Description:
- Strands 5-6-4-8-9-10-13 form a 7-stranded parallel sheet, sandwiched between helices. A 4-stranded antiparallel sheet has the order 2-1-11-12.
- By secondary structure, the protein is an alpha/beta fold.
- The model is unreliable at about 5-30 (pLDDT under 50).
- It has helices at about 20, 60-65, 70-75, 125-135, 165-180, 205-215, 230, 320-345, 350-360, 390-405, 420-445; strands at about 5-10, 10-15, 40, 85-90, 105-110, 150-155, 160, 180-185, 220-225, 245-250, 260, 265, 295-300, 305, 315-320, 360-365, 385.
- Helix 4 packs parallel to helix 8, helix 8 (about 320-345) packs parallel to helix 10 and helix 9 (about 350-360) packs across helix 10 (about 390-405).
Amino acid sequence: MTCSSSAITGSAVAARPFVALVALFVLCGSPRTVSAEPPTEIAPVERPPQFEGPQVQAQTVQASSYIRVSEARHDFGVSGEGKCAAVLDTGINSNHVDFGSRIKAARNFTTADGGDPAIAVDRNGHGSNVAGILMANADHIGMAPSASVVALKVLRDDGSGSFADVEKALQWVLDNRIVHGISVVSMSLGAETNDSDDASTASLPLRAKIRDLRAAGVVVVVAAGNAYHRFKAQGMGYPAIFRETTSVGAVYDSNVGGQEYLSGAEAFRTEAGQLCPFSQRLTAIPGSAAEFTRTDLFAPGAPITSTGHVGPHGWTVESGTSQATPVVAGVALLVQQYYEKQTGRSPSVDDVERYLRSGSATVSDDDSDASAPEDNVPNTGARFPRIDAYGALRAVQADLATQILRQGTKSFKELDLTPAGRAKSKSEYGQKIKQAAAERDAAIDK
């Protein structure tokens, strides 16, 4: 999901630089909840302007620096090599140098090109932009630059789509995940909703497929939505609201000046870690129906330079939770790769989310200076986890070291990392500590 923006100075609209020319997705329409009839249509993404030739500003450098992903790749020896993500979007520019020979498969689930499943050409630009943020490795450098991608076209050339096509694509992932090595799904799409819980959705086919993917160890990363200004209340879009997804909101990665969006959202000033005024957001409410629904992570999403769909060197600049989503998806691939290198097995989705969240930094949804507000949306005062690639990989390392200590094994590959194994080792290690303390006290008493 992307949001249209223009740069502003103070309260006046300034001359628009090329960043401000980019048309970005804005959620619109009547509010609804998941408790109503589930949505069937995906809110369309607008066709972003495309640019050819060398770009005039940094690619994903600021976002990468902010979340320390380059440093993480270097120090932990990961790049996404051997990993693969499925991107459900408008297709992909298979001729772009950013992707090279790393497009494992591409399939069309829409009516475009007469419904030919073999033609997943991106004539919109949104899908190529998202895939580039995730795994580009030439003109741009994505989060996991050695990873492969499977491009599943579920959005038509005009940016519209149906959840029936998304369901078909997710079933395709379930059927083909092993042959292509798919361990992450990235979905920068959603419906025009602002839901706070998923209590009434247990039997929905779409949620069932996401649940099955999670059980199979596939992380399904979904954009939280861009309608915060419109709803002015906590919530997330559909299907990000499903607890089985890893939902993602957007923050700025640096001071990019004032930003104005077609949705009406406006940031009068910006700084790294500031929640984008368009980004939907939701905190968990313990003891309620919303106890297990929340915005899992925030990531840089405004503005991000990435791959375009025009020519072998095309590029775009976009802002939105659509751009934040592949940032998280790419880091998830790095976490999986590092875990697998150390243990010889794949982590569960619960493990991946735990590492991403426990290794995160904290961002606050507040506006400390009431006399000079930073944006024109309500601030919740809530604190959210903002992804940090280095912290996530360090969390994996620390967890495995802790398990070595508790289980007394000589290598990570010997560890029992199942929930039962972890619980047993924690209990037994606790008993050892108590016993050692008792023996020490007895020795002192003598």
